[in-house]
């Protein structure tokens, strides 16, 4: 049986000197992943705004007056055009989000067609459509959906202050349904909601203690959207972001960790540290669902500076020598591989 994390253990990670935590995280990261490889996804909102839920951070809730352009469900052709472009630009996965409480059964043929067509282009697919019934989840899985994104966002106790139109248990139920269909689970959270460190601890424990840790963990930093109740929230300290990425890596060594919303407000050095200690996935392209993401050129330039490449090598493909070749026989670190090049 897998070992469970308890509150005191995780608190220790939050209280320890930062470099101790970062060293541990990077060591673990190098054990399971190629430290110079980043997974690249593109995100598209397929239905925007007028969401009946009241998530206090969200530009798309019908409860708040925000400046977003509301959009009905997109035509399949429009989605496929966007997916094709994402593939051409090097994305490995195409993620689609709809501002729904849940899909209707009558939407299923539409969703299934999109999944099949995007997969035919040679990309993985991910959707985030709200709560799912078992029947709907099975249909999506059968159509070939690779990942379903459904975030826990924060701790159970703090969740009630962020969303009142659904419960944490509803979220856990949907996650359970997704897991049982065999689809891969993408589930993470947001920092900057006004949560305490104890909420961050409980949230990470909740994720890591699911029957199986999510294969993909998005860590979002609040994007303060004008018109939402969180528009004036306190800024998140970037060292907190780096620490949380590191702790997520330590607790869930084999999951992909996506440095998700909020990258636009992070400088290159912050992002570099996040990548160094375990973040190995990003959204690529200048827009998330309704808010801005770094321009592609900026990401390419950062990847170049850091020597990062994506799995399919469309982005920043270059031949570099393995550092081990250079340091071989030099005994810089005795009996240890200095550089764990991707296995
Ligand atoms: N409507 C679906 C749902 O809630 O399951 C999926 C879309 S929702 C936009 C996906 C996630 O994006 C949220 O759970 C939250 O973690 C993140 N998110 C939404 N608005 C955000 C914001 N303003 N800043 C940072 N993250 C945000
Ligand atoms: C996730 O955790 N982050 C993405 C994805 N899952 C769907 C969404 C980020 C949204 C940021 C706010 C916006 O652009 O509206
Ligand atoms: Fe709706 Fe999702 Fe936004 Fe919540 S986070 S208001 S469910 S779109």
* Portion in helices: 25-40%
Bound small molecules, which ones? S-adenosylmethionine, 6-(5-methyl-2-OXO-imidazolidin-4-yl)-hexanoic acid, iron/sulfur cluster
User: From the 3D coordinates, which CATH architecture would you assign?
Assistant: Alpha-Beta Barrel
The CATH first-level class comes to: Alpha Beta
Question: Main attributes?
Answer:
343 residues; alpha/beta; TIM Barrel; 10-stranded parallel β-sheet; 12 helices; 38% helix; 13% strand; globular; binds S-adenosylmethionine; binds 6-(5-methyl-2-OXO-imidazolidin-4-yl)-hexanoic acid; binds iron/sulfur cluster
Describe the 3D structure.
There is one protein chain. The chain is 38% helix and 13% strand. It is built from twelve helices and ten strands. Strands 1, 2, 3, 4, 5, 6, 7, 8, 9 and 10 form a ten-stranded parallel β-sheet that branches. The longest helix is centred in the N-terminal third of the chain and has 15 residues, at 18-32. The radius of gyration is 20 Å and the shape is globular. The two termini are 26 Å apart. 45% of the residues are buried. It binds S-adenosylmethionine, 6-(5-methyl-2-OXO-imidazolidin-4-yl)-hexanoic acid (DTB) and iron/sulfur cluster.
Blueprint (SSEs and pairs):
Layout: H1 7-15, H2 18-32, E1 37-47, H3 76-88, E2 93-98, H4 108-120, E3 124-128, H5 134-143, E4 147-149, H6 156-162, H7 168-181, E5 184-186, E6 189-191, H8 197-208, E7 216-221, H9 238-251, E8 256-259, H10 268-276, E9 281-283, H11 296-306, E10 309-310, H12 323-327
Parallel strand pairs: 1-2, 1-9, 1-10, 2-3, 3-4, 4-5, 6-7, 7-8, 8-9
Helix pairs in contact: 1-8, 2-9, 3-4, 4-5, 5-7, 9-10
The chain binds S-adenosylmethionine, 6-(5-methyl-2-OXO-imidazolidin-4-yl)-hexanoic acid and iron/sulfur cluster.
